[in-house]
Amino acid sequence: MQKGxxxxxxxxxxxxxxxxxxxxxxxxxxxxxxxxxxxxxKLKTLASVGEVKGDIGNIDVTVTLDKEKKTITISDRGxxxxxxxxxxxxxxxxxSGAEEFVKKYKGQGDGANIIGHFGxxxxxxxxxxSQVEIFTRSWRPEAKAVRWECDGSPEYQLEExxxxxxxTDIVLHINEESEEFLDEHRIRxxxxxxxxxxPVPIRFEDKQINNTTPAWVKKPSELSAEDYQNFYKxxxxxxxxxxxxxxxxVDYPFNLTGILYFPKITKxxxxxxxxxxxxxxxxxVTDEVKDIVPEFLMLLHGVIDxxxxxxxxxxxxxxxxxxxxxxxxxxxxxxxDKLDEMFRNDRKAFEEKWEHTGLFVKYGMMTDDKxxxxxxxxxxFSEVSxxxxxxxxxxxxxxxxxxTNKENKLVILYVTNPVQQDSYVQAAKAKGYTVVxxxxxxxxxxxxxxxxxxxxxxxxxxxxxxxxxxxxxxAQAQSVLxxxxxxxxxxxxxxxxxxxxxxxxxxxxxxxEQPVIVTRSEFMRRMKDMAAMxxxxxxxYANMPDEITMTVNxxxxxxxxxxxxxxxxxxxxxxxxxxxxxxxxxxxxxxADLTAFVNRSVELLGKE
Length: 608
What we know:
Layout: E1 2-5, H1 13-21, H2 27-48, E2 61-66, E3 71-76, H3 83-89, H4 97-105, E4 129-137, E5 146-150, E6 155-160, E7 167-174, H5 184-194, E8 202-204, E9 207-208, H6 225-235, E10 244-250, E11 256-262, E12 276-280, E13 283-286, E14 301-305, H7 315-320, H8 322-345, H9 347-352, H10 354-367, H11 369-375, E15 381-383, E16 389-390, H12 392-399, E17 410-415, H13 422-430, E18 435-437, H14 443-453, E19 457-461, H15 483-496, E20 502-507, E21 516-520, H16 522-532, E22 548-553, H17 558-564, H18 568-585, H19 591-606
């Protein structure tokens, strides 16, 4: 029997492992099963180059739980270890056997898929164990089986033992604080989380828990649309089918595979980030993929797999790693290319999906200038009815003669609520204007950003002014009222509306338009919208009153009747009701003012 002290490359390695290296205790099972898969992959590589003779037989990795003995055993039929290899790879902590193997067999068979680029994985077992035993027998002919044992102190024992088959059994004697892991459901849950796509069969309670050949490890040419859909169901059993997907498959200058799905997203959805899972050679790493996946694509679903990203990742590592930056840029390019291809090949289908994909596109245009350059070709505006879509250039061509202002800027007229703003839309259409719909949660920010990024473009909400003034605010209109009548009308409205945030003006509009039109300052409304979204530095705008312009259409015939009303009280109430109706149309009449309006309306109807 050999006894000795584990040769660590740092002092007091076990407290470091327990407290700092692995904050999530579930990780121990991932590390040990990953090591078992490594050992199996090594055997397959050796067999492929003729070093291991004959049939390698069953290569399943098995996890066994014994509640009575309070043990968890991870068994493989991989390469196993000799006594010398146990001494080298187990006793010399932080010396990675997998790393050495990869260097030797790089490019041969499964050698390129060795998971373990880490030397401390095995020692995660001491997070949950009072004692760990290794029973192992090397694949090498004439090799003798050995048993290694350690109780978490630097002392170990290594001796010969009996073991009929090649491979390794790791036996964890679970400590009192970790008895939660002596539960079948808990172990199954951990295995399904970390090991569900490992490339070697993993068995627990006589059932295989993993899919060894998930869709992303296959070539796109080997997969049908149904295969992609079925894999999505495997990942998200209760989700609606995805809109489309992108298959990532890069081997230079970095390794990256994966499938990203575009889910159905509407403006009423719950934000569900962390739906993309990161793997390293089919080993689950994390669902926190910020920095790897561009921020505007964090709402995508799916899997990315890169051996260039280590299993034990940290945020600081991801932010500084050059491969991560390249992967991030590549994903952005692939998404842009896919959207561009869809737009060019089947524009109608692209437009049908715009309600869901527009959110990603707009967010990307705001946050990534390279994506913006590509997206300018396929970003579309939906006309209010939804029957027609325009790219920016198409909108410019269609509307420039009517919708270019004095500063030579294209004025894009838009609505945020087509139903509420319908009367304004109809007035704008009557002038020949084209109104588009911008009603998603990102549009307030999108409008501000695009005004800065697009040349000679200005966005104006259709209710920001009366239709006559939407493009050029200096249009002069003639009133049919006399100066005396206009003066009386101004006096009536002024007496009823004394709020400092409401400005009353008289204009001679088309007689068919509304008698009173309420509009709000475009700038102030935008600031309030941004503040409400939490996206404005000037959050104090949220508490400021709306800046309201009340335009009295002096040409509407109702005013001749009101001016002829002999009853002064009724005359004032009629004027106030017209003002309140206009405020109500913009959801600006609330509380006591709304109650007063209802009561006044009932009273006026009773006097008819």
